Amino acid sequence: MHRIKKILLIKPYAITCEWNNGEVRTIQMENKLLEWANESGSIYKKLLDKKTFVLAELNSETKTLFWNGITKMVDGNGVMRDAPLDIDPETLYTLSIPAEQTSIENAA
């Protein structure tokens, strides 16, 4: 199972992370966010705002990325509260490429 160990760099729609297998990979999310945002009622539209996207954090328990306060949930008392939006780390790994490849693409 792939898990994120550390966030190294956050840019709009691209997050470079160190993974639990020792790899450094850049998660390229723009195309996937655009795809997800087209779905009816999608909460992912909020992540297309660059100022919101760069607020990504690492959940120290689940070892994946999350954005605080992006969605809502009902707590145990029936009260609607802000909740984080997280994305499965396996999905993030699939969207990522080795960081060396990112550097090469940016130099071209």
Question: How is this structure best described in words?
Answer:
- It is a single chain.
- By secondary structure, the chain is of the alpha+beta class.
- The chain has a single domain, classed as 2-Layer Sandwich (NE0471 N-terminal domain-like), CATH 3.30.2020.10.
- The chain is built from four helices and seven strands; from the N terminus they run βββααβββαβα.
- The strands form two sheets. It has a four-stranded antiparallel sheet with strand order 1-2-3-7. Strands 4-5-6 form a three-stranded antiparallel sheet, with no helix packed on it.
- The mean pLDDT is 93.
Descriptive tags:
108 residues; alpha+beta; 4-stranded antiparallel β-sheet; 3-stranded antiparallel β-sheet; NE0471 N-terminal domain-like; globular; 7 strands
Order of helices and strands: EEEHHEEEHEH
**Shape assignment:** globular
Q: Distance N terminus to C terminus? A: 33 Å
* Assigned CATH architecture: 2-Layer Sandwich
- The proportion of residues in beta strands is 35-45%
Nearest-angstrom radius of gyration? 15 Å
CATH topology: NE0471 N-terminal domain-like
Instruction: Report the helical percentage.
Output: 25-40%
Biggest beta sheet summary:
4 strands, antiparallel
Spans of at least 5 consecutive residues whose pLDDT stays below 50 are none
What is the structural class? Answer: alpha+beta
Mean pLDDT: 93
Q: Give the helix tally.
A: 4
The domain count comes to 1
